[in-house]
Design a protein that fits this description.
Blueprint lengths: L1 H24 L6 H8 L3 H7 L3 H24 L5 H8 L3 H5 L3 H16 L4 H27 L8 H22 L3 H19 L3
Helix pairs in contact: 1-2, 1-4, 1-7, 2-3, 4-5, 5-8, 7-8, 7-9, 8-9, 9-10
Length: 202
């Protein structure tokens, strides 16, 4: 068991070391040699954990999800309402605190372009999987709100999907327009509040 943990930690450390390089140069222009150097490992070690550079992107997103999920679990403990939980779910301040948010947005833009052009099946599958996981998590929050009488009875599948599409759509649009992180957060807040007004109980 300890051996598996060490292997996972090594894999993750390589991916984290690659964040700056991929954000600055893009995936195609980032060499395995430069990633190995940044991670302080040999080139062969990178290939031991990742068959392709796209797999490094997948590991970066797994790392990001682990940070966001830990943040959500902690903040949910003190959340007083369903609206607070929705706000917490779409809050990415923990990434800003770690000084990686701007870099991740650049990588996200790169990731999306690969997904949209269908150039890497594993990235597409990972993107779809993460999207579905987020939709399921939002569904749980909304169903809790209906049970507690905070929300109207509505089509939870539809609204949770809309929430997720708004979030990802705003991020992609913001990246294309060169919006600042603060502008993105404000746009998301306004959209989240507008949608919540439609489903909350009067």
């Amino acid at each position: 068991m300890p051996k598996i943990v060490r292997k996972h930690e090594k894999k993750r450390s390589i991916a984290i070391a690659a964040i700056d390089l991929i954000a600055e140069n893009g995936l195609a222009q980032t060499s395995v040699e430069s990633i190995a150097m940044a991670a302080n490992v040999g080139k062969g070690t990178v290939y031991l954990y990742f068959k392709t550079k796209e797999e490094i992107i997948i590991e970066i997103w797994d790392y990001v999800c682990s940070l966001l999920n830990a943040h959500r679990v902690e903040k949910f403990k003190t959340a007083q309402s369903v609206y607070e939980k929705i706000a917490i779910f779409y809050d990415f301040s923990v990434l800003k605190e770690k000084n990686i948010l701007d870099k991740l947005l650049k990588i996200y833009a790169n990731n999306i372009s690969i997904v949209l052009t269908s150039t890497h099946t594993a990235l597409q599958e990972n993107f779809n999987k993460k999207t579905q996981e987020d939709i399921e998590a939002i569904k749980d929050i909304l169903q809790e709100g209906i049970k507690k009488g905070e929300l109207k009875n509505f089509d939870v599948d539809l609204i949770s999907t809309i929430y997720e599409k708004i979030f990802k759509g705003t991020i992609i649009n913001g990246i294309c327009k060169g919006s600042s992180v603060d502008d993105l957060r404000q746009s998301l807040k306004k959209q989240r509040e507008f949608l919540f007004e439609l489903i909350k109980k009067d």
